[in-house]
Hints:
The protein is α/β, with parallel strands linked by helices. It has 13 helices and 18 strands.
Amino acid sequence: MKPNGGNITMKLVFILSGLLILIIIWLGLDFSLGRRKHLLAANRVETGILHGEFEIFTHGKEFFRDYFTELQRAKHHIHVLYYIVKNDHLGQQFFTILKEKAQAGVRVCLLIDRLGSLTIKKKDVRELQDAGIQVAFSNRVKLPFLFYSSQVRNHRKISIIDGKVGFMGGFNIGKEYIDEDPFLSPWRDYQLKITGEGVTFLQSEFLIDWDQYAEEKHQSTDGLFPQLPKGSIRHQFIPTEAGMLERSFIQLIKKANQSITIGTPYFIPSMPVFKELLEARQRGVSMTLIVPYNTDHILVQEASFRYLRRLLKEGALVYQYQNGFYHAKTILIDDKICDIGSANFDKRSLFLNKEINCYIYDPAFIEHLQQVIHKDILDSKPLSLAELTRPNLWRSVKEMAASAISYFL
Length: 409
């Protein structure tokens, strides 16, 4: 007698359901245990008040023109940490400069995130190494916490040249950052060029990451920390990982008495951070948000709507940037503190990524940043509460899906 087809189907359903449950349990344990280990290992570090000089770049072509020029001027060493380096013509131009400098005797260390720079192949790495460049990949996916380690990325973007010039901010290396992606152009971002004593801390932070991931550690610091003059702009650096950024954002928001301006490509705050924003509104602090109109990742926009809807009800102003793609990351508090760095205003930056931000306390720099932000607002359209409350079944479905996975967007 042949087995009943219905029984076979039921058995398959039970087996697949069991496998699915086991996978969910494994993912949960992997993530929670991996996070616990990360929290125990992470150390909170921030600088005291430093002094330096700053220049801000908001357009990729201008930034890379200056950045590549500074790389070509290097005499002693080039230290570079990026989340994304793409294997396109801009990436190849970047590699060519690094090879030429290494062959001329400049020590070049390149640290890139393993998943963020997935297009960089073994062949590319061999060519870089053959030219004398030391190459390392940060945050590899590894046992025993495969899922957790796949989610924790090194999102910092730091370059130090001869220990005297530093760069940090939102730009990665790829053609979209110089307006060559038809869907994301022009690209709007904020990048800092730094001179003065703050460069010493960027150098130290790079070495910490380098020694964590590179096979060849730095045995000597000779020439890496030259004597640097103090500049005029007061600032401090805040490197974060494993949840530290949440506390930093909360502390910033608490300081606001008059106004808060947030520019971010992804607005997905944690509940404690969001609660602090609501309390700021309730004590009369004006609030302005700039977010993209077009998105570069699936569901990130829908994940933000529940928060934007509530802030709009509370009287906040929300602008959607329309002149290309908005990738800038900034917070401005009371015209007294501005934050520019690598961190987005989302849960991935809050809890998973390694980030580095710079708090700047200089009135003249902040006034200049206000002009930049004003230009961005002019290139935006106000988002109304009516738009977000208008019935839309497909949007609602995507919002529910985004809410379920917002931690990983």
